[in-house]
Amino acid sequence: MSIGIKVKKGLDLHLEGAVADPRHIASRPTATVAVTPDDFVGLVPKMDVREGDSVKAGQPLFHDKTHPEIKVVSPAAGTVKAVVRGERRKIIRVIIEVGSGDSVKLSTEGVLSDSAKARNLLLESGLWAMTTQRPYAIVTDPDAELRDIFVSGFDSAPLAENITSLTDEQRRSLEAGVSLLGLLTKGKVYVSRRDASAIPDIKGAEMVDVAGPHPSGNAGTLIAAIRPVNKGETVMCLDLPTLLRIGATVLTGIVPSTTIVAVTGSEVKEPEMVECHIGAEISAVLNGNIKSDGRNHRIISGNVLTGVAVGKDDYLRFPYRQITVIPEGDDVDEFMGWASLSPSKMSLSPSFPGHFLRRKLFRPDARLQGGRRAMIMSGEYDKVMPMDILPEYLIKAILSRDIDRMEQLGIYEVAPEDFALAEYADTSKLELQKIVREGLDYMRKELE
Question: Which of 252, 285, 307 is the last residue of a domain?
Fold first, then answer.
């Protein structure tokens, strides 16, 4: 028996550059990989290795200063090539030169019957760091009592690709992963899916069939529709690839170190699926698969709404699922600029012809298209946010640092990604995700 959810509010962005055949997966070797501590929000890294050290795949690179049991491990065997630091010696990234070597073999005895051993396996394997919690949208606190666990079984973001079928080995991994997660909570393990034929019922999980536009695949949407987070409660969130890694680790004792990345966007010659190491070089994943059209390019590790802008010499960022390449837009000389009525301009406003071209695939660039201004429009956020909150008032409460008001307006339920569509739709062009992140950090600092 599964739960059915219909998401009515939201928006699917129809962009050029989708993968034509996601079943065809190319393999890309990489000379170096990197892990970026900033990808694990709430974690303060303390190094466990030095430059020149030899490491195994799955060996800890650094741990959290506050909770030393939370570890982030190497995605490949090799040598620590560099520990890149920034201002005040902040660790920017740890670069591993890929070489030959073994993987760390973890003990899995009793992990499906003992909650302490299950928790320890996730912490030692580095997979705990790939989960987040609500409230605060940070790496899950290992000391927290988890009310429920939510697994996002599909990605509804623009140009994202999802699993279309599972092998027998992957099915066993999902069942093992759910069995282990079930030991960590007195509540339920919820797994969302868009297509029941792609992800069948999993023993021990409460399956949730979700229909509707983006952000139907977000954990926040799933939580809000099933059981919102109240003050004093903590839930764990993770995605389907992480659940598969957990299950594979339970079955083999070795942490999977590869990922499948969707290389997408209008500036990609041939959008494709690529298998590579976690944290692989962007240049290796792209492999020259960018159009030579004389345009400046914006390379995004992730999707156009929540991804991180990177360079060709940078590395794949967590959650390691997608790369999007679009025009930068700084080399465009457009008649009338942002006010152009060209039908090729994508817009939510009916003032532009593109608003009515529902089936057209658009090719947006990275321009802001206007300057930031006061919050002059009302009700824009509500049109694309399916959560039962008042997003406009919550943003104002965050900006004013009104803790009581933030609590009343549901800040414990949200993460920055939940405001990504609202940020796209915002006429005022506010950096809503940044504002929400700062508000969550402020709340945590003041209340913990």
Answer: 252
